[in-house]
Amino acid sequence: MRSRAADPAASPWRGPTRPYDLVKEVVVALVVVSLLVALLAAIFSSPDERGVTIQRWARADAADFVTTATTELDGTSTSSSYGPPYNHNGPGQKLGPIGLQKLAGVRFPIDSAHDFVVGPLQTVTGDPALTAALARYNAASPSQRQQWASNYDEAIQKAPGQEPAKVASGDYGPVPIMTDRLLRLAQSGALDTQLVDPRSDFYQTDYTRPLLFLADSTYLANLADAQHLSGNQWGMTNETGSYPGQAWLWLYTFWYQVSPFSHSGNADALIWGIMAVLSLALVLVPFIPGVRSIPKVVPVYRLIWRDYYRHERHLAPTPNHQPDP
Questions:
Q1: What CA–CA distances, in Å, run from 199 to 5, 87, 113, 274?
Q2: Closest CA to 84 of 66, 62, 70, 103
Q3: Nearest alpha carbon to residue 173 among 153, 154, 155, 147
Q4: Domain ranges in the chain?
Q5: Where do runs of H (alpha helix) occur along the chain?
Q6: N or C: which terminal CB in the chain sees fewer CB atoms within 10 Å?
Q7: Hey, how many other C-beta atoms are within 10 angstroms of the C-beta on 136?
Q8: Quick one: DSSP state of residue 247?
């Protein structure tokens, strides 16, 4: 039979013993760890930033709010031209010849002009000027509505400081009155509630519409830049205030920093494809010839399991003792 060294763990303990209170040990460990967690969280946790709401946006930057509302009406905002899953107004992103967004289809239909501007204004009562403006707007053709909004959008861009109050006179139709009343509605806080999906009557947890409206603004982008959360700041791996966040996402966000992905409108789909291939390659490492043999060529495992291999040498067969076949 093959000689084997005695297993120390199988031998009975013959040394001194003493009583051990396991319950006391658990309680003490729990209290100490809890205090340490609370202390370290108070010192090193990321800041609890105040939530960004449409009311906060409208009060902090009224000019940007009016400008964004105008782009919703003329169809030039990001959400209005995004494509699936919100509308058919954009090509969507592709992975090679496969249009991923179009393949999924429009799952959450959004009409930016109606859902973000006209719809909320129609809930306002007791304002004859707004009622007349909405009647005029709804009676106009789609091309006329867009022309009014485009004229007003261009006029805002040319106004001093892009202030709506300093816009030169022009053919804007009812758009100035509509955006002014929408601003008042937003500053009151009512628009935050109205943009929540009306189908979620009980829990009111679907914030897709208010988030899309906010994302069309420059206000939210400026907040992200100030907090080091934008794409060119490795925002996916940060938390607010430039605190380190999901460091394990570095490989994913790395691709957004290099060309051609850094300036491609199709970057999300391309990077998703790259990460899918890399993830599949990682899963298939045991089956890829050459790659699966790297541990044998670079025996790092012997360093990690050095105690085992040191013990294995003691069990090596001697010339006078051959192992069983």
A1: 72, 18, 19, 37
A2: 103
A3: 147
A4: 54-226
A5: 22-44, 54-60, 62-74, 100-104, 112-113, 119-121, 128-139, 142-158, 175-188, 190-194, 208-215, 218-226, 250-254, 267-283, 294-297, 300-304, 306-314
A6: C
A7: 16
A8: G
Q: Taking the chain (325 residues) in consecutive chunks of 10 residues, what is each chunk's mean pLDDT?
A: 65 80 93 95 81 94 95 94 90 86 88 95 94 96 95 93 90 96 95 79 78 95 89 84 78 92 89 94 90 86 84 59 46
What's the token pair of residue 98? 């496969």
DSSP 115: I
Which residue is associated with the tokens 């009562």? 125
Pairing of strands 98-99, 94-95: antiparallel
Residue type at 56? Answer: R
The contacts found for 51-55 with CB under 8 angstroms, 24 or more apart, are: 52/214, 52/220, 52/223, 53/189, 53/192, 53/210, 54/186, 54/191, 54/192, 54/195, 54/210, 54/213, 54/214, 55/186, 55/187, 55/188, 55/189, 55/191, 55/192
Total Cβ atoms within 10 A of residue 101: 19
The pTM of the full predicted model, rounded to 2 decimals, is 0.75
- End-to-end, the C-alpha distance of the chain in Å comes to 10
Name every residue whose Cβ is closer than 8 Å to that of residue 74 and which is 6 or more positions away in sequence: 146, 149, 150, 152, 153
d(CA 5, CA 314): 9
> Which of 102, 68, 98 is closest to 85 using CA atoms?
102
The CA distances from residue 165 to 67, 153, 218, 255, in Å, are 12, 13, 19, 43
> Phi then psi for 94, rounded to 5 degrees?
-125, 150
